[in-house]
Amino acid sequence: LSERLTDTLKNLRTKGKLSASDVDGTVREIRRALLDADVAFDVVKQFTNTVRERALGDDVNRALNPAQQVVQIVNEELVNILGGEQRRLQFAKRPPTIIMLAGLQGAGKTTLAGKLAKWLVKDGHTPVLVAADLQRPNAVNQLQVVGGQAGVPVFAPEPGNGVGNPVKVAKDAVKYAETKLHDVVIVDTAGRLGVDRDMMKQAADIRKAIDPDEVLFVIDAMIGQDAVATAKAFQEGVDFTGVVLSKLDGDARGGAALSVASVTGRPIIFASTGESLDDFEPFYPDRMASRILDLGDILTLIEQAQEAFDEDEAREMAEKFATDTFTLEDFLKQMQQLKNMGSIKKMMGMLPGMGQMKQQLENFDESELVRTEAIIQSMTPAERRNSKLLNGSRRLRIARGSGTTVTEVNALVNRFEQAAKMMKTVAKGGVPQMPGMGPI
Ligand code: GDP
Ligand code: MG
């Protein structure tokens, strides 16, 4: 669910009570969507239980229909697990701020070091990168390349001093930063392909030696179901203050975000979204919740809400047509609804049975609505209720008042009267098709 879509769902004026079977059906869809998004099974189970409890509890909003209520609860709970508010990087009261990176080999630590440095430089900081990954032959060199791209210095062991001793390198780097007035120290560390005791111990030793302000656990968002075990192992072995999700570009569904945040209780602070140093941003729990909900079968919920909306709305309108109480104000209201719906145009196209509706939305021109709005607002209440009052001089006054022409006023009134007439006929014989939505 994108934000706009959530808003649209909230705006649908349908009513309904939440029954246990509504909740079960919806929760089932959500469970499937989350599993599809690679959220760990236990996390999904716990999550759906919480949602079910809340949905059947008292704190539901009766103004929303069942599907919407559940979607709202799901969204809130997702944001909760993901940390609620966006968590900012913690800086030391007295510089330098020490940031240590930990994670498996290939998680994206070295790349992140460069991204973080570049981001900090833009913010007026003077970071230094520290090569405390002395495991892989090329690791130091890789960090130097990244540092060059970010335009920041790299502290690395020199022959005869610190080679093979990452703890010493890290400690020396902090001293170096103090004397050279670097206000942030970013320590890159070694990872292994899998969770490994020696690696954990090395990272824990580095942590003990330099007492970082932040230990960022970097995890590949594509890792899927392995995310939980990996995150737990790092929490026990090294512990960390925050999480960075990397490779959140491409097809990554972000289920790992939910798993890791839920299992460790640590906030996700940044998202890495590509190989370039600029593919990097603070992590926003609400946006991630939207991203997770966007996937899988969650679209079904929207469809359900949409159907409920159509039925209620149609019934109400049908009554107005049949009893000849459809007014220009109703007409305007309907057009405004169209505008709301314009924003979900794209989503509608993906829903079965919505093809025709989508076509009508495609033809909808919002500037036309602005004019229609102006014209109807320039009418007196009596005129709005009874279009028969609209003689030539009234139409001229309305055209002037709304900054349009008499021709445009005429066109609008004709369209309205045609719609009302047509719908009256239809209403007597069957269910109307979204009145007022013909060619505008
Ligand atoms: P490290 O072993 O943890 O230091 O991981 P690296 O920083 O060396 O990254 C491993 C690989 O993943 C490299 O090829 C990076 O270019 C790539 N990489 C890192 N971050 C991202 C990201 O956010 N998106 C994508 N697509 N690739 C990334
Ligand atoms: Mg590395």
TrEMBL record:
Catalysis: reaction(s): GTP + H2O = GDP + phosphate + H(+)
Q: What is one GO biological process annotated to this record?
A: SRP-dependent cotranslational protein targeting to membrane
Q: Which GO terms describe its molecular function?
A: 7S RNA binding; GTP binding; GTPase activity
Q: Name the predominant localization.
A: cytoplasm
Asked if the keyword Protease belongs to this entry, the reply reads no
Q: What class of enzyme is it?
A: hydrolase
Q: What EC numbers are recorded for this enzyme?
A: 3.6.5.4
Compartments, record wording: Cytoplasm
- Domain called SRP54-type proteins GTP-binding: residue spans: 267-280
GO annotations of cellular component type: signal recognition particle
Q: Does the keyword RNA-binding apply?
A: yes
Task: Provide this UniProt record's keywords sorted from A to Z.
Answer: Cytoplasm, GTP-binding, Hydrolase, Nucleotide-binding, Ribonucleoprotein, RNA-binding, Signal recognition particle
| Residues given in the record as GTP binding sites | 103-110, 188-192, 246-249
UniProt similarity note? Belongs to the GTP-binding SRP family. SRP54 subfamily.
* Free-text comment about domains: Composed of three domains: the N-terminal N domain, which is responsible for interactions with the ribosome, the central G domain, which binds GTP, and the C-terminal M domain, which binds the RNA and the signal sequence of the RNC.
Q: How does it assemble?
A: Part of the signal recognition particle protein translocation system, which is composed of SRP and FtsY.
What does this chain do?
Answer: Involved in targeting and insertion of nascent membrane proteins into the cytoplasmic membrane. Binds to the hydrophobic signal sequence of the ribosome-nascent chain (RNC) as it emerges from the ribosomes. The SRP-RNC complex is then targeted to the cytoplasmic membrane where it interacts with the SRP receptor FtsY.
The protein here is known as: Signal recognition particle protein
This chain's source organism reads: Okibacterium fritillariae
What high-level taxonomic lineage is stated for the organism? Bacteria, Bacillati, Actinomycetota, Actinomycetes, Micrococcales
Span within the entire protein?
7 to 446 of 524
